[in-house]
Design goal:
eight-stranded mixed beta sheet; 40% helix; alpha/beta
């Protein structure tokens, strides 16, 4: 492959092979490549929501402390390359081409074996591992799981620390329909004697995590048991809070990402960072934490893309995300009329998700976007029982119609699939 476009085409072609549980293809590819995953110093983060934000808070603090930080995240918001980044800078096109050419022969060899063709996510994970281990050697890499944990393709690493942000009902067809089943899958990232921090709150999920931790002799640090949040204040452009950890008190921390769910993500990041300091000798001060958290930002998470009129985008793509969105708009915009544009993938329980907002919003417009798994606006409209609703299959038409109705007493919130939010963010960027 000579060009970036060719490389991306090859990667995306693997989508046709869907999702296949199990780690055997990953293990085989890495073995063929000389097991580069063994050369990494990493942290592994699972969870239903909040993984990307937690990783971002950690990255910004570690950068503030002078470390070079690799991150592996998904999905992307602006460009594919951002999934594999160093200090927040996506892998350059030419490096992606180079690494893909190293990995492709191995992918094709495995495809011809009884294991079958590796999936897109498996290949992208392998590209990240090879890039970090053989090309850039950052001081630490923060890996976010793609789906679940136990059979997620990232679960071939041996991290120095693990974390589970929260548990919610998402991807239930794959991970299970109860919180206990989902917690079991996420707990699969635990490794014997490797410490774990968790922000999980539901009792049935916590019980599974505690049980796993005992079996694996894992030092487990839990929200509201071992660390706690206090003195929370809503700021004009974010949140202020304090965190008490097993060893320290961090007073009056500030973040620019809005919502109490972000306070929880940032607090968990603080505890993870403290663990890195205590267990692995990373030099991280109170000031690094304070400054790093304050400068952290993560696109598509309650992000203001226009001030006049006021437009906010948020990738609330499941029930828990919608609950966090509701809490955030109620605390930050209690007196505004709230208009919503919504689009989602075909497998989402639309009524169950959106009914959470019915007592908070004034109007919903359903729309669609160019993605193979996107639902039509009409299908979303039909599944929704909210009275004051509308639809426009073309998202540009939907936005144009709504912008005409937003005044100084209103806020337009565009939400749903992260793939949709990626498209909308690009639209507003071009519009500016």
């Amino acid at each position: 492959m000579k060009t970036y476009e060719e490389t991306l085409h090859w990667i995306h072609e693997l989508l046709a092979f869907g999702m296949k549980p199990g780690l055997t293809r990953m293990e085989k590819m890495l073995e063929e490549l000389g097991n580069p995953e063994r050369d990494l110093t990493s942290v592994h983060i699972a969870g239903t929501n909040g993984k990307g934000s937690t990783v971002t808070y950690m990255r910004c603090v570690l950068e503030e402390a002078g470390y070079t930080v690799g991150t592996f995240t998904s999905p992307y918001i602006e460009q594919f390359n951002e999934r594999i980044s160093i200090n927040g800078t996506p892998i350059p096109d030419e490096d992606l081409v180079k690494v893909a050419n190293e990995v492709r022969p191995v992918v094709e060899k495995v495809a011809e074996s009884e294991l079958g063709t590796p999936t897109e996510f498996e290949v992208v994970t392998t590209l990240a591992i090879v890039y970090f281990a053989r090309h850039k050697q950052p001081d630490i890499i923060l890996f976010e799981t793609g789906l679940g944990g136990r059979f997620d393709s990232t679960n071939v690493i041996t991290p120095i620390l693990t974390g589970i942000t929260n548990i919610g009902y998402d991807h239930t067809a794959i991970l299970g329909e109860t919180l206990a089943e989902i917690a079991f899958e996420k707990s699969g990232i635990m490794k014997t004697n490797i410490p774990m921090v968790t922000g999980v709150e539901q009792q049935e999920a916590v019980e599974i995590i505690v049980e796993h931790a005992e079996k694996k002799q894992v030092d487990l640090t839990r929200l509201d048991v071992d660390y706690s949040i206090s003195a929370h204040k809503v700021l004009v452009d974010g949140e202020q809070f304090s965190v008490k950890t097993p060893s320290n008190m961090y007073n009056d921390l500030e973040i620019h990402m809005s919502g109490y769910h972000q306070v929880k993500n940032a607090s968990m990041a603080v505890v993870l960072l403290e663990k890195l300091q205590q267990e692995s000798g990373f030099a991280i001060s109170h000031q690094h934490i304070q400054v790093g958290l304050k400068r952290a930002s993560w696109p598509g998470r309650f992000e203001t893309v226009s001030q006049h009129p006021l437009v906010i985008i948020d990738g609330a793509h499941n029930k828990e995300g919608i609950e966090s969105l509701k809490q955030t708009i109620q605390t930050h915009y209690p007196d505004h009329k709230k208009r919503l544009i919504f689009s989602a993938l075909k497998d989402k329980p639309v009524e169950e998700m959106l009914s959470i907002l019915y007592d908070t919003i004034d109007h919903i417009t359903f729309t669609s976007f160019d993605f193979h798994r996107a639902s039509s606006a009409e299908s979303l409209y039909d599944k929704c029982s909210f009275k004051d609703k509308d639809l426009a299959e073309n998202y540009e038409v939907a936005i144009q119609n709504e912008l005409e109705k937003v005044d100084e007493h209103s806020v337009l919130i565009i939400t749903g699939s992260l793939y949709f939010i990626s498209t909308i963010r690009e639209f507003f960027k071009n519009k500016k």
